[in-house]
Design goal:
globular, mainly beta, 53% strand
Length: 118
């Protein structure tokens, strides 16, 4: 059984910071990338950041310079450090794992709410 569990979400003021973490339990031997999507009510789910097993990072234009993704390959954990948060960052954030050869994420976490508001 594979499970992805996110933590670290919550309420933060504009300009503040949060760190999201995703812990993977169960064995996944062919991980290609891990990362984060987010989805606001009534909006499409969008890719926020990803990191491959080789350490290559990609970010959505809207978060470049503000978010940093990191991964511990040995532990199969991924974190998203978010700074200079804006109200438009408010969403449910979902951790994912993709595997070699897959066009879509293979596994998803349950999501963690991030709310940026005064």
């Amino acid at each position: 059984q594979v499970q992805l569990v996110e933590s670290g979400g919550g309420l933060v003021q504009p300009g503040g910071s949060l760190r999201l973490s995703c812990d993977v339990s169960g064995s996944i031997s062919d991980i290609y990338a891990m990362g984060w999507y987010r989805q606001a009510p009534g909006k499409q789910r969008e890719l926020v950041a990803s990191i491959t097993s080789f350490g290559s990072r990609n970010y959505a234009d809207s978060v470049k310079g503000r978010f940093t993704i990191s991964r511990n390959n040995a532990k199969n954990t991924v974190a998203l450090q978010m700074s200079s948060l804006k109200p438009e960052d408010t969403a449910v954030y979902y951790c994912y794992v993709s595997t070699w050869g897959a066009l879509q994420p293979r596994y998803w976490g349950q999501g963690t709410q991030v709310t940026v508001s005064s």
